[in-house]
User: Fold these one by one.
Assistant:
Number 1:
Amino acid sequence: MCTTTRINMIATGNNIARLRKEKGISVKQIQEVMGFNTPQAIFKWQRGETMPTLDNIVVLSELFNTTIEEIVVIER
């Protein structure tokens, strides 16, 4: 039997925004750590419009001092 597993992008974005605020980290600080020219990708993550790449999720988990599972919301 095949089950569908997917990432809930809205809930994941909410987690990114919540963790960022809880840790007192600005979008600008994430932008600088990631080496992005603009903060648009981070705002899109927080709105659940796009997902960070796996390597960026790893960086976020280190920046927020948490696990990937705390950031990414998986629905089964």
Number 2:
Amino acid sequence: MSSYAIGYLGKWEWIEKYLRIKRETIEKWHNRLYRRGAIFALLCWVPGVGDIFAVGLGLLRANILITAIAMLIGKFLRYVVWGWLTGLVF
């Protein structure tokens, strides 16, 4: 949720200025990410890209309750799978 908060505090102008991404590209990805926000929030546990998804959801001002619940479910399932795999090995 801290990555979500960082995105929430961000501004579109900063992305254009510092990352040199065109406005059209930002709007295209905005539409894709906004419609599938909960799915991306479920994938926030993935190393490397998970934080990018969380920042993006914050930047888009996605529903904080849905985002938090989806992140919780995704991370919980990750630990369930790790626990299951650990049980199989030992």
